[in-house]
């Protein structure tokens, strides 16, 4: 869990110059560079409901205001509402003297016990889809504004196209020897969206401008004398979670349609290749392409909490783990150029370290240590187990108080193989990747 919790301790330098923990980074397998969220294009692949997992195309999701039609959230606590069935007795239409049982349904929150019965919504004879939506009091105004801005953008677009046409005309005049281009242009103009617009379509109707409220009605005297019953008034969170109604009284809260979520894919801004591509099926947790740095770049962690003395060298231990299915060669070197981050001198391992591959079978078999499998220098390598090594570095703080920080460069071999699919014919490309690492090692005491 240290990977996700102690994310400030060890950071890797992204190609754009920002420092991020490894769990926030991606590795572009085409540029061979680390990429952070800002260096990527985020694209929405599909919309889906996190509860019923229904997939929706983006146009339909937009029409439904990005909400699921059949799942509801509790207006009181935000937990998912579940449908409860209950038996009621109704008069038998064939024999009015007898009652027959009938199943009715209502929504209830399993967390705060809020139910649709609390606000007087009657039970429904069907389990799903019987819940009427409230109509927003500002619906007409919002529709009018939407129409207005749609027409305005249409008008602007058609004006832009007309301008382009006028600019191009001089050029056409000289080159068009056989008057074929004019025919082609006319045909193109007929097909273009602006051609479909007649003058009356592009005239934008003026709408009533919004009015500023300058005067407010006086508060009732009652408000100062009547004690407030907090259990009958909604909280700010409850009000703002349904922005179109903003109920003040608890009995005006209404079930909220569940928000849709998106599956997104990310793309490298430099080379346009996909770095993350999820499976289209919303029930699946698999990825078609997954290129997060954690699957390709060795992860460095600080083994212990360290306390330093000023100007005195201390050996500290670091852990490196290999996420890949091949053995990696690791080398360390100091940062080239100016280093404003470090507050200590660091003595890095001089020789190449071999990091054993990740082997899931060995993990479950409880397999042996690899102490003797590699030619390790005992002064550097403290211990080695499966795909992890613990090694020493010497750190001498150059400050007399405060935080001890070091920066260094780590180089590792990288093979462009797809996980689980060892390529047979293709020759696997091996490159050396270089990352700058910034580590906060501890404090001076
Ligand atoms: Zn970046
Ligand atoms: Zn749903
Ligand atoms: Zn609730
Ligand atoms: Zn790239």
TrEMBL record:
User: Which terms are listed as keywords in the entry?
Assistant: Acetylation, Coiled coil, Cytoplasm, Cytoskeleton, Isopeptide bond, Phosphoprotein, Ubl conjugation
Main location class:
cytoplasm
| GO annotations of cellular component type | cell cortex; centrosome; dynactin complex; myofibril; stress fiber
Q: Where in the cell is it found?
A: Cytoplasm, Cell cortex; Cytoplasm, Cytoskeleton, Microtubule organizing center, Centrosome; Cytoplasm, Cytoskeleton, Stress fiber; Cytoplasm, Myofibril
Q: Where is the signal peptide?
A: none
Q: What InterPro entries would the database entry show?
A: DCTN4
Subunit (UniProt) = Subunit of dynactin, a multiprotein complex part of a tripartite complex with dynein and a adapter, such as BICDL1, BICD2 or HOOK3. The dynactin complex is built around ACTR1A/ACTB filament and consists of an actin-related filament composed of a shoulder domain, a pointed end and a barbed end. Its length is defined by its flexible shoulder domain. The soulder is composed of 2 DCTN1 subunits, 4 DCTN2 and 2 DCTN3. The 4 DCNT2 (via N-terminus) bind the ACTR1A filament and act as molecular rulers to determine the length. The pointed end is important for binding dynein-dynactin cargo adapters.
Would you identify the family this protein belongs to, as annotated? Belongs to the dynactin subunit 4 family.
Query: What is this protein's name?
Result: Dynactin subunit 4
């Amino acid at each position: 869990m240290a990977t996700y919790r102690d994310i400030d301790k060890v950071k890797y330098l992204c190609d754009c110059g920002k420092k991020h923990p490894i769990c926030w980074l991606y590795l572009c397998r085409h540029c061979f560079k680390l990429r952070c969220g800002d260096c990527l294009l985020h694209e929405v692949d599909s919309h889906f409901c996190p509860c019923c997992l229904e997939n929706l195309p983006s146009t339909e999701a937009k029409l439904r205001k990005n909400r699921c039609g059949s799942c509801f959230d509790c207006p009181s606590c935000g937990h998912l509402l579940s449908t409860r069935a209950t038996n009621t007795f109704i008069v038998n239409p064939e024999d009015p003297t007898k009652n027959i049982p009938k199943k009715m349904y209502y929504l209830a929150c399993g967390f705060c016990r809020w139910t649709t019965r609390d606000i007087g919504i009657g039970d429904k004879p069907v389990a799903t889809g019987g819940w009427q939506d409230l109509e927003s009091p500002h619906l007409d105004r919002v529709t009018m504004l939407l129409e207005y801005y749609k027409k305005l953008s249409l008008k602007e677009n058609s004006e832009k196209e007309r301008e382009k046409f006028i600019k191009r005309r001089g050029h056409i005049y000289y080159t068009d020897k056989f008057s074929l281009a004019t025919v082609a242009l006319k045909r193109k103009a007929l097909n273009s969206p602006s051609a479909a617009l007649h003058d009356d379509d592009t005239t934008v109707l003026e709408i009533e401008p919004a009015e500023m409220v300058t005067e407010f009605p006086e508060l009732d005297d009652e408000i100062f004398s009547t004690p407030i019953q907090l259990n009958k008034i909604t909280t700010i969170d409850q009000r703002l979670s349904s922005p179109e109604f903003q109920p003040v009284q608890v009995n005006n809260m209404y079930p909220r349609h569940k928000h849709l979520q998106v599956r997104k894919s990310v793309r490298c801004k430099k080379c346009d290749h996909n770095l993350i591509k999820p499976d289209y099926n919303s029930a699946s947790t698999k990825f078609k392409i997954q290129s997060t740095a954690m699957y390709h770049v060795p992860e460095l962690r600080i083994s212990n909490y360290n306390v330093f003395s000023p100007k005195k060298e201390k050996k500290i231990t670091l852990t490196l783990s290999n996420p890949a299915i091949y053995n990696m060669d690791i080398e360390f070197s100091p940062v080239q150029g100016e280093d404003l981050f470090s507050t200590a001198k660091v003595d890095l391992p001089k020789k190449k370290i071999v990091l054993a591959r990740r082997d899931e079978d060995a993990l479950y078999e409880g397999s042996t240590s690899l102490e003797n499998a590699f030619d390790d220098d005992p002064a550097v390598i403290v211990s080695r187990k499966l795909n992890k090594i613990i090694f020493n570095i010497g750190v001498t703080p150059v400050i007399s108080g405060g935080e001890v920080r070091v920066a260094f460069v780590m180089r590792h071999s990288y093979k462009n193989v797809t996980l689980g699919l060892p390529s047979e014919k293709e020759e696997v490309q091996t490159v050396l990747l270089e990352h700058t690492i910034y580590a906060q090692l501890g404090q001076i005491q």
